[in-house]
Design brief:
single chain, alpha/beta, seven-stranded parallel sheet, five-stranded parallel sheet, 13 helices, globular
Length: 378
């Protein structure tokens, strides 16, 4: 089968959508399919030709973004008035135009028109939404030419664009998103809890529940925790609104006993960094902070802990991919948000009582299971 995957990010970037695109491409190729990845972002100095040879896939760069692979973002201090002007301008551009959405999606469509070729299945990964808009424009042009009637087009999304809980956008984006999904045969979302968020945008008979997935065959895990003192970890990202960790840090500062909290973050965020820096001064060596750790190494570090914590979203439309990684490590997981956090449960975990641990069944997230779900749509 001829399969194309359109994605903004890919290996070696440490991002859930990069993981998804990479695992799908690798497994499809392993099964003998002809796979081509259309990638929007080139990492400077990275050898994509070698990666292509290793995975037996074709990687085609759509030249929209080019950047270095950084361990963390760099922030520059500017005058407060200039910061306000910049924030206001950025809000205007993001709210009404979503940055380069329209210009870049047109470039994607034009590029695909000249380079796509015949495919049996095309999967476009949202985040950014321009992937879906660009492919929708391409599909629209193909229909006008009365071509490409046999290809199955699948939009893959973890969070709605207009109805996003994180970003508010102008009303007309709702109609643009509906126009986009009208061109796809299916919409793949990671959890059934998110169906209601997409119902205003697409017919429910087009929605398929296809979760995030990983190769679980060659995972290296620690045999036991690294230390006798209670060691726990969090991996992923924090957000100011839906996943703010300040309440947890306040609680940890109240504990007198020794512990080690390992924090694995993808990047620095100005607001979250200011919170972490404030509490690290109090917690000292009890708080370890690591940025941009490669996923296989991260799994090993997580497996060295006694238990893991998940600060859940305040919305039910997203399922953090880190929960799959947590399940793979086979370590107990305490999941909570600001409202449901229970100090007595956390204290029980600190002393080895895991009766309230979250149960994570990793079978549905096995890459072989997920690729078969996609192939069944063709």
């Amino acid at each position: 089968m001829r399969i194309a995957i359109l994605t903004a990010v890919f290996h070696p970037e440490l991002h859930p959508r990069a993981f998804r695109a990479y695992e799908l491409a690798k497994e499809f190729a392993k099964q003998g399919h002809d796979v081509e990845v259309f990638l929007l972002t080139r990492i400077k100095g990275y050898d994509y030709e070698q990666l292509s040879d290793e995975l037996h896939i074709k990687i085609t760069i759509i030249p929209l973004y080019s950047r270095e692979l950084r361990a963390q973002n760099v922030f520059q201090q500017t005058h407060s008035i200039l910061r306000c002007i910049h924030r206001l301008y950025r809000w205007f551009v993001e709210y009404f135009m979503e940055g380069h959405l329209f210009a870049y999606s047109t470039k994607i469509a034009n590029y695909l028109n000249h380079n796509m070729g015949e495919k049996d299945m095309v999967i476009a990964l949202s985040t950014p939404f321009m992937d879906l808009l660009g492919l929708a424009k391409y599909i629209h042009q193909q229909y006008e030419k009365r071509q490409d009637k046999q290809t199955v087009y699948i939009a893959d999304s973890g969070d709605p664009f207009y109805y996003s809980q994180q970003t508010k956008r102008a009303l007309y984006f709702k109609w643009i998103e509906k126009w986009v999904y009208r061109h796809f045969d299916y919409l793949a979302i990671p959890t059934s809890d998110a169906v209601s968020a997409y119902s205003p945008l697409i017919a429910e008979n087009k929605i398929q529940i296809i979760p995030q997935a990983f190769n679980m065959r060659d995972v290296n895990l620690a045999a036991k925790p690294i230390s006798e003192r209670p060691t726990f970890a969090y991996a992923g990202v924090f957000y100011k609104d839906i996943r703010n960790p300040e309440f947890l840090f306040q609680y940890l500062c109240s504990l007198e006993e020794d512990f080690c909290f390992r924090l694995f973050l993808r990047h620095r965020d100005p607001h979250i960094t200011s919170i972490i820096d404030k509490y690290q001064q109090v917690l000292g060596e009890k708080l370890e902070i690591h940025y941009n750790v490669e996923r296989n190494q991260l799994l090993y570090y997580l497996s060295e802990c006694h238990f893991l914590i998940n600060i859940s979203n305040t919305t039910s439309t997203q399922l953090p991919s880190k929960l799959i990684d947590y399940g793979i490590t086979k370590r107990p997981v305490y999941s909570f948000d600001k409202q449901s956090f229970a100090p007595e449960v956390f204290n029980a975990f600190m002393h080895g009582d895991y009766k309230d641990a979250m149960i994570i069944d990793t079978h549905p997230y096995n890459i072989e299971v997920v690729t078969n779900q996609f192939l069944d749509l063709v």
